[in-house]
Design a protein that fits this description.
This protein is 76% helix and 0% strand. It is mainly alpha-helical and 317 residues long. It has one domain: Na+/H+ antiporter like fold.
Length: 317
């Protein structure tokens, strides 16, 4: 037990250190909103797709990818279970309109790419990339279909079109396109020239440090004096860090998956709130201040929760 705790703490140390550095530099005035937006764009449009592409094409064959396909059922089932629990919790706790939809979505949608990929790469290495992407694809599809409908239904008392061209455009992010391209590349049996492989690897290697610095920058901009632990925040934390990951662990005996997939899915489910949750809440006139506060507090709690779940999955899977 102590060995796994120490292993988790050791793996988390560089993550926490880079987040702390980003927060310190932000408070020291090194970064502003413009530089933060630039880093976020650099990661999501350039370095993250490169990291995904090189991680898949370098470490996997068509046979390995085919063996991973049956594992898809577990993340789908666990997210739907967490969604149902979140809806019941919102009604039982009488979460007020404007927050209720985002509260429920937070129970089953997590930050699987911007935070999830760097964390899983740091914890499990490149071999975790396919399982990370599998969870990310399910997470993204459910967010832009069921998730957005839940938020719109809460605010406007009507439903968004379940699927549209706008939804498809949002789903087909650079990261997902890189994932699809890498899958086709692997299935076709192609190989990259050494010079191009090195270029993609160097570019992709920026993803983890830049992502963690960005998280620290966002944390550094929020005043702890203005933060209040309301009921909606406390139960939002319960949904994000208990209900969602425990849904994965509870359904693993029913929908078995490989040991690495279970570890990755559990860690992905235990990531902070999805950043896009605040943007969508703002777009549809839900309570975006609540979702911003929820994102902030889940990031802080994640520094404690992530080592805990890493210890759990290493002990039992």
């Amino acid at each position: 037990m102590l060995e796994f705790v120490l292993q988790a703490a050791e793996a988390m140390f560089p993550i926490i250190a880079l987040v702390a550095l980003g927060s310190f530099l932000s408070r020291a005035g090194w970064f502003d909103a413009v530089s933060g937006a630039l880093i976020a764009r650099l990661v999501t449009v350039i370095s993250l797709p490169c990291s995904i592409f090189i991680g898949l094409t370098q470490n996997f064959t068509a046979e390995k990818l085919a063996a991973l396909l049956p594992d898809t059922v577990l993340p789908v089932a666990s997210m739907l279970l967490a969604m149902v629990v979140g809806g019941a919790a919102a009604r039982f706790l009488d979460i007020r309109p404007g927050r209720r939809g985002a509260f429920q979505v937070n129970y089953f949608i997590s930050n699987t790419m911007f935070i999830g990929l760097p964390v899983n790469l740091a914890l499990f290495g490149d071999e975790s990339v396919p399982a990370v992407m599998l969870y990310y694809v399910v997470n993204t599809l459910l967010f832009w279909t069921l998730g957005v409908n839940i938020i719109v239904g809460d605010v406007a008392r009507k439903r968004e079109r379940f699927f549209s061209m706008d939804t498809l455009r949002k789903i087909l992010s650079p990261s997902l396109l890189a994932f699809i391209g890498a899958i086709l590349f692997v299935l076709a049996g192609f190989s990259l020239p050494d010079c191009l492989r090195a270029t993609l690897r160097y570019t992709g290697n920026m993803t983890t440090p830049l992502s963690l610095l960005f998280i620290g920058m966002e944390v550094g901009r929020i005043s702890l004096r203005e933060f209040r632990f309301e009921k909606d925040i406390v139960w939002g934390l319960v949904g994000r860090y208990l209900v969602c990951p425990l849904a994965v662990l509870a359904l693993t005996p029913v929908f078995p998956a490989s040991s690495l997939s279970v570890k990755v899915f559990t860690m992905q489910a235990a990531m902070p709130a999805m950043t896009m949750l605040t943007i969508v809440a703002k777009q549809y006139k839900a309570d975006s201040q609540y979702t911003a506060a929820l994102s902030f507090i889940t990031i802080l709690f994640g520094l404690v929760v992530i080592p805990f779940y890493m210890t759990i999955v290493n002990l039992y899977f």
